[in-house]
Amino acid sequence: MNECAIGVFDSGLGGLTCVKELNRILPNENIVYFGDTARVPYGTRSRETIMEYAEQDINFIKKHNAKLIIAACGTVSSVLGADKKNAGNIPFTGVLLPTAQTACKITKNGRIGVIGTPATINSGAYVKAIKNIRPDVSVTGNACPLFVPLVEYGFTGKDDPIVKLAVEKYLAPIKACDVDVLILGCTHYPMIKDAISEYMGSSVSLISSSGEAAKYALALLTEKNMLSGRSETGKNVYYTSDSIELFEENAHAFLGDTIGGEVHKVGIDELISAAQDPA
Ligand code: DGL
To answer: Hey, CA dihedral for 77, 83, 85, 88, is it positive or negative?
Structure first.
């Protein structure tokens, strides 16, 4: 079991920012990644549709014998809620709880900002998770619907005028609340963290939900005695529901390196049958 892969999924490529962190802090682990690139974005869809897709994604990953499943997607994590700790008999985590815990730990002035997709912010899940941990803290959230398409189209430079304009538009109400911690509640957002940081200023700590989920995975696998005993570097295998070529072309920007693993195509019909016939 310890030599099984960590399963990671996202609506698209954003979850690769979590894979990048996993590769850094757990270099000997195998990773199986699914990006639902044919159906991204999830964050502007209804709760029912997101739940349906999440179930398909989880069951697809389960079929690959994962020892831990990570929903490296703020949208799915928020819709499923912080209480989901297992997928059948497999440990499960979203990005929500680890990120909320860290934000509560590091805020000094008790004012936390959170940005995410419309589904993440409208779910109220971050506010609920944070208030459960620290009822005294105030939370200001804002949905940033243009961030995912900007990142997916490669607009990530901190001096890019389109990025700067979008950052200013979405973050002005949060900056006005004098937060000292800002949660990047979508796993695409680390790609534009330099622009966000420049706008918010150096006194605001940015928390990457991808990075927090990866740290949580390390702690969980250590606690459960489930770390791989492999001495060589682990392998990454990727699955995409759209073009393999497009995945390969875009993924390295998220991973900050070559993707270093095979990419396979999975059809939507396969995802649907994975949910109908769970592992
Ligand atoms: N990476 C997803 C998230 O963290 C992307 C959003 C989407 O599919 O809309 O929410």
So the answer is: negative
